[in-house]
# Entry
Amino acid sequence: MNTLPGKALRSIHASDSVLTWAGAIEVEHAAGWSRGWRLPRSRLRLFPGERLRGHARAQAGVRITFGTDATVLRGQCLSADGIGPVDLVVHETLLDAPVASDGSFHFAELPAGEKIMEIWLPHGGDFRLVELAVDESARTWVAPATPRPRLITYGSSITQCRAAASPTRTWPALVARGLGMDLTCLGFDGECHLDPMIARLIRDGPAEVIITCLGINVYGAGTFTKRSYLPAVLGFVSTIRDGHPRVPILVMSPIFSPSREEQAGPAGMSLAEMRADIAEAVRLLREHGDADVHLVDGLDVFGPAQEHLLPDGLHPNAEGYAHMATSITPLVRAHLPNDQA
# Structure
């Protein structure tokens, strides 16, 4: 049993079957803690790269849901190093709480009566949940499944959004919440390199809309050359298409980055040239019969007018990610089925 001032609480272990881990590809239940993975942990060796695997442990877009009539919620994680706040959505009301140095967080004076708790976990750092706790007399139950259109986003740190104000304020979360969608976020800081196994993962995952944000990590690491980049984009998007014959795929080119626009990176291409190759890939796919792949010009999402929202010239700040969501939301809405838009 746990306590808060004036309240006796009962524990819900992180592995309890009453908890649903939404937005995770797999969930790891270890001795004393649980963690969502944004890659399939059971096949992790098929996804090479220690940095990629490390960021797959970050809980970007991962939510824990359950039903309860509790008025207090407490949580305990294993470590608070580098971990941002936890968000709680109850009756469409958003609350946030910092994770204390001892790994605890809590929400008090929640609305009385039955409700669904949706806990958005920190989108950076290695968050491992030990337990949740609710009022000692509170009831808990598995949250009923609510069919919602599913959104998959793939990209770099600009899709993981560590500088966002909180887990629900990343651009993928803002888009998904604004449109009532079920989010799976595959944004990996520094690790958006068109990995074929990630294309296969997206291919095999359920989705009504898919957004791929390509280019910036390839620019920085020189992953491809001018000869190989366009074929890599074509292959990555075509692999996704194999599993989603009529699903809209929005292919977004890099957002504005002033020092990289005309300056060639390690692969010998400027950001402007990479943007042109992405546009060419979409044009070719559409020319060859794929009417459901669509180009999103990164400069239309976040362009020179937003340069003041790039503190380091590369990554948007919290306001910048909110701006991205405002730009992207109507594009996604336009591609939802009429009964879901």
